[in-house]
What does this fold into?
Amino acid sequence: MSYDKAKVRKVLDAVKAAKRDSLTAPEGREVCEAYGIAVPKEGVVTSAAEASKLASSMGFPVVMKIVSPDILHKTEAGGVIVGLKSADEAATAYDTIVANAKKYKADANILGVQVQQMVKGGQEVIVGAISDDSFGKLVAFGLGGVLVEVLKDVTFRLAPATNEDALSMLDSIQAADVLKGVRGSEPVNREVLADTIVRVSQLVSDFPEISELDLNPVFASASGAIAADVRILVNFSPKPARFRPEEKDVVTSMNRIMRPKSVAVVGASNESGKIGNSVMKNLINGGYQGKIYPIHPKEAEILGHKAYKSVKDVPDEIDTAVFAVPAPLCAAALKECGEKKIAGAILIPSGFGETGNIEGQEELQRIGHEYNIRLMGPNIYGFYYTPSNLCATFCTAYDYKGSTALSSQSGGIGMAIIGYSRSARMGVSAIVGLGNKSDIDEDDLLLFFEQDDNTKVIAQHAEDLKDGRAFAEVAKRVSRKKPVIMLKAGRTAMGAAAASSHTGAVAGTDRIYDDVLRQSGVVRAKSLRQLLDFARGIPILPTPKGENVVIITGAGGSGVLLSDACVDNGLKLLKPMPDDLDKAFRKFIPPFGAAGNPVDITGGQPPQTYVETVRLGLDDDRVHALILGYWHTIITPPMVFARNMVEVVNEMKAKGKVKPVVASLAGDVEVEEAAQYLYENGIPAYAYSTEIPVEILGAKYQWARAAGLLPK
Amino acid sequence: MSYDKAKVRKVLDAVKAAKRDSLTAPEGREVCEAYGIAVPKEGVVTSAAEASKLASSMGFPVVMKIVSPDILHKTEAGGVIVGLKSADEAATAYDTIVANAKKYKADANILGVQVQQMVKGGQEVIVGAISDDSFGKLVAFGLGGVLVEVLKDVTFRLAPATNEDALSMLDSIQAADVLKGVRGSEPVNREVLADTIVRVSQLVSDFPEISELDLNPVFASASGAIAADVRILVNFSPKPARFRPEEKDVVTSMNRIMRPKSVAVVGASNESGKIGNSVMKNLINGGYQGKIYPIHPKEAEILGHKAYKSVKDVPDEIDTAVFAVPAPLCAAALKECGEKKIAGAILIPSGFGETGNIEGQEELQRIGHEYNIRLMGPNIYGFYYTPSNLCATFCTAYDYKGSTALSSQSGGIGMAIIGYSRSARMGVSAIVGLGNKSDIDEDDLLLFFEQDDNTKVIAQHAEDLKDGRAFAEVAKRVSRKKPVIMLKAGRTAMGAAAASSHTGAVAGTDRIYDDVLRQSGVVRAKSLRQLLDFARGIPILPTPKGENVVIITGAGGSGVLLSDACVDNGLKLLKPMPDDLDKAFRKFIPPFGAAGNPVDITGGQPPQTYVETVRLGLDDDRVHALILGYWHTIITPPMVFARNMVEVVNEMKAKGKVKPVVASLAGDVEVEEAAQYLYENGIPAYAYSTEIPVEILGAKYQWARAAGLLPK
It folds into this structure.
């Protein structure tokens, strides 16, 4: 692809010099042509002969229009003739138009007649670009027309978009089938259309001053894609780019902060009930093995640790400072931390941006930037990093170590994370509060967790992304190695309004978040529970090696609901079941057990039937994942089922047959214990739900597909 | 509205006599005209003068076509001229068409020239009708065109549809806004369009032999709605209507079955592990106070109860017979039950329709019909009716009495219902297994629960509805008194395929279920957990008196997610908050607490802040429902919050301020106990979830709106 940047620059310079904020139609055309975006052919002629020659070179039909600075209402003047179908018609039209113009205004200065290719047929689509405060340049694609305006069926990608991104856009709209040809109409040329999208995305990326661009409509057909109308808006004074430290510097700082050799508690206290007391207790009782330095203006010792008046008095290097002083004292203390070359400040105190104290928060940011000290918060509960037994928080200590790293923008949600995690005995590597995100945000955490061997999955709650582009770029890379899950709050207009009254975050359009998160390989959770369920289940499940899912169920009724859930979660059942495999399954189940998929082993079966069928499913290489539907009976009690399933899964694992297995348990209360046992032994399982286990498997698949680990 | 039935009858009789299965275009027109459905004006003329006169009477433009049995390809013969715009053009066209026809075929028998009004402009829509095996006649509405074909944006209602139904259809399609006028186009005439829908629905209801009808397109504009094309298919040998006993007979039988004075156990057993033994034990241990008659060929006594060889030997009336004998013995035993005039047989045994033994099941149905004995099952776990302490099942006894009646088509799902109910301590009036539904089905249960004062809400799991129309009719009435909730399994094609391999049920199109259930006031659960959560929460919540919901939250982050959930669940936040009310709330919260709705009281508040704000919300008549977001802190621990909330809700209830309140609890594991306490005291509450409590409130609202209890 060759782009004539100089040509665009020249056009934009002229627009800037003229102090305009939009391009004229001819300027728009020129810009498009410079970037190889097809526009209708056109030209101005000054004789009938020229008109027929030019029109013939374009192909018919053409439209012809008078060109005269003195005639504004061309149609009224008889200066427009559409649908000209031959060289002769074009020649005649030239004479007619000029005659009409003279009749309309005898002294009009006639510069000539414009001949323009009439583009029609094919499918009307829209290709556009916008500038988003968080994500920067985005390219958009949708179908044209009234219906789409009503249905808002438009999809976005970060610009510049790759050819693959662009092709995926054609499939991401609800009405995608229209492009494939319906009612006998020809399918559009996907390559050409995708190419147009790529070129638009490159154009706005190369020229950030293009704030908005609309090709509407683009006529997409089997042969090509032509932009019939071009609208370009410009903004020559965009806001300055957000400061972004180098990735390696982020990682260095974050490692010191999250895995500190020493921690200072600014505002440590001997007084029970004080935050500075809770933080101290959590550090000590959590089992943190590094050095703890309480900072207090008067006390000599706090909870058995020698106290200092200032961090500067500590005769040792400090990595992390946890703040537990009132907001007005933070700035001075932070400065001292900076002078002490502390890597990060955990700013628990509230009373900053969230209460309208923007200035106070900006002061902290200035100090942080000046001294290269990273800020977590303010307005947070702190953080946990379990591999270091580090509870740098005023909340209670957390005790189940594992490989899930969680973060939340909100303290309340953070508490819900802690409660759920503890209740479900979810193994956690970290829980981090981000609060007002004056500095450290989700992408900083991603960079840390990316290289943290203790973390296998990252789950984040966010109300906004201060720098969506930075997040997307990092997430795209990280998510190929470790699943990244996000609960984006403020999805709805109402939610976004609540978000902005809460932390001052202005939520972007949800569709943009949805598209960009998907483009970045991030699995999006739809609800708080789903975030928690995904965080718990995804790291436990092995990555599937293919798309073929088989349901094995004792309850036919569960089989139906599990099948529904598969469709809802984008899972593909192995169908039709290969004859030999079907026959093999039938060997183990009663003659009236249902064939195919779900494999319905029927209700009254002994444990052995579950075991045999599950073993077969795990053994056969055409099966890539199993969903189990258990039905509580006297013959196969819940814990017997659970132990048998864990056994057969482990037996096959030893033989190299490692596949994701999830389970739905229908039965009396004993199934809860069985579900917990299954979960703790590698099989995400839920009592009384056919949906949740399938959602988790679906999320694992979604991640694996995005990470390129599954055949497309 | 006047309908010319005689005219339609005459057309259909002619079609039947001709052994055709579809109507010609003129026949279709005639039928439409007889029912007042507007079609383009047309007529046949035999002179140019007639042509211009007729065309003028219709209004222009018109299209004219040759009418000749000898000319099949009219266009090829030059026999069609479109877009005629004046009387003169029509006259000329007449001559041209006749001349062309003669030129094309000199000896053609020319009957005249058809003049037809050309309908154009406005919005293309589709009005149609289909015959569904379960629901019978359905009327359909959608937008015309390619996009809609792709998006399948069509809505259905039972025919005949009321005017209100028809108007609701215009709002039920995704692209509803198109009808309201977009991009400056005029809105369609809703009354006229709805009238067309009503007329179509009446037509197919009056003439069941009309199996399919399509008006496509209908041109709907500000002035009217004209069906440009009519297609009608007929079927003169429809399947006979399903037998449906009188409602009063159903209720009489169901009352005897569900609240029996005496129960026989056919196949009762002394042998532990046998189903006939489990049923006996459950009857006895469940505390059933009526008479129990074990039936056994040899035993003299079973579990302390005198046994009989046959029900016919029992010297007393029997209401309910629970079957625990193998399938092959059922028919003979059922006949004896019939002769004994037993009201109902609870057919626990499997081995019928679900295993392919259709004949065996049909035999039971014949016997049941002959002796007027109602059949529950076969292939079920039985049923519970807690007000009678009746556990007519082989499952374990159920002990939490309450007002929720549940049923399931599948045994596995039944076990999940029992397990969840027990685990959540949900008060239940009945749990019923319907299995193969050879006779008793969901609408029989609705009729019983409608008049059962022990039941306040009805929740059903179904894979199909054998008689969707009967269900819808009953549900429409019952749901106005008591909420009816349904989990329809087999929503997806994959799920439906699993359903048909499971019980032989062929699931209808899900969109039909969705529309008809909504039309019937039934709240549809999207998942098994949701069915259970709704069943538990809906009866606890008082019915709201208006749409204004207020969120009061200690965690801003929860407020955002709760707001999102409100949108997702069709709830309306009171916005903007009236000034005086806003001011009143602000009195109780810190100055940096957020204004408006959510009311963000901020995190560090004492219990009193929750109490004061909730009291205010309950007291103010402009507020109709409250959603609470709790954030676990030391200052307001979970159980303190819970007890305070229950207190203030009860305090206001005593003052006549009865409003639904739900709660989302974010915090450490102690919030689980608090949630359970809140739930048991009238406030549906969930730990670690912002979605579920709002879903429950949304479901209550959905029901209340459908039941006409809320302003529309």
In short: The first helix of chain B runs from residue 5 to 17. The radius of gyration of chain B is 32 Å.
